[in-house]
Design brief:
CATH topology of the largest domain: Translation Initiation Factor IF3
Structural class: alpha/beta
CATH superfamily of the largest domain: Translation initiation factor 3 (IF-3), C-terminal domain
Helix content: 25-40%
Order of helices and strands: EEHEEHEHEHEE
Shape: rod-shaped
Strand content: 25-35%
Number of domains: 2
Strand order of the largest sheet: 2-1-4-3
Largest sheet: 4 strands, mixed
């Protein structure tokens, strides 16, 4: 028969017992025999209330889920020749997103011959950064990805939004 190392409900070592003896001992005490370290030589079992153990694990998982934060990424799309009023409108949206604690991805999309003048898109992003220097932190500097130039902004001195 297989032998196991047994630990009592209050944490004391009961030594190495035969599996049947360990189960009988647990039943005498009104508890369950739970294998806690199956890979150990010999395997380690603990005498405990298994239902209560499962409840406490579920409670800890629920508590961890409650304190979890979710990073929300908002995206603002522009073109290299976006008009002044539209840029101001988008800047106000970015300010609102940053105030709420979200991260903002600003993309400048290029089409056709605009690809020959990516410096225009860079200028738009640089202007955005200058306008938002008090509210935002650059988490990822502007870079080209295909036909889009992207910039990632985060709120300055603010935590991310908690999941609700």
């Amino acid at each position: 028969m297989k032998e196991v190392r047994v630990i009592s409900a209050d944490g004391d070592q009961l030594g190495i017992l035969d599996t049947r003896e360990a189960i009988k001992k647990a039943e005498e005490l009104g508890f369950d025999l739970v294998e806690v370290a199956p890979m150990a030589k010999p395997p380690v079992c603990r005498i405990m209330d298994f239902g209560k153990y499962k409840y406490e694990i579920a409670k800890k998982a629920n508590e961890a889920r409650r304190h979890q934060t979710v990073i929300i990424l908002k995206e603002i799309k522009l073109r290299p020749r976006t008009d002044e009023h539209d840029v101001q409108f988008k800047l106000n949206n970015i300010r609102r997103f940053l105030a709420d604690g979200h991260k903002v991805k600003v993309s400048v999309m290029f089409r056709g011959r605009e690809m020959a003048h990516i410096e225009m898109g860079r200028a738009v992003l640089d202007r955005m950064v200058n306008e938002l220097q008090n509210e935002a932190v650059i988490e990822q500097p502007p870079r080209m990805e295909g036909r889009n130039m992207m910039l990632l902004l985060g709120a300055k001195g603010k935590e991310t939004v908690k999941k609700q």
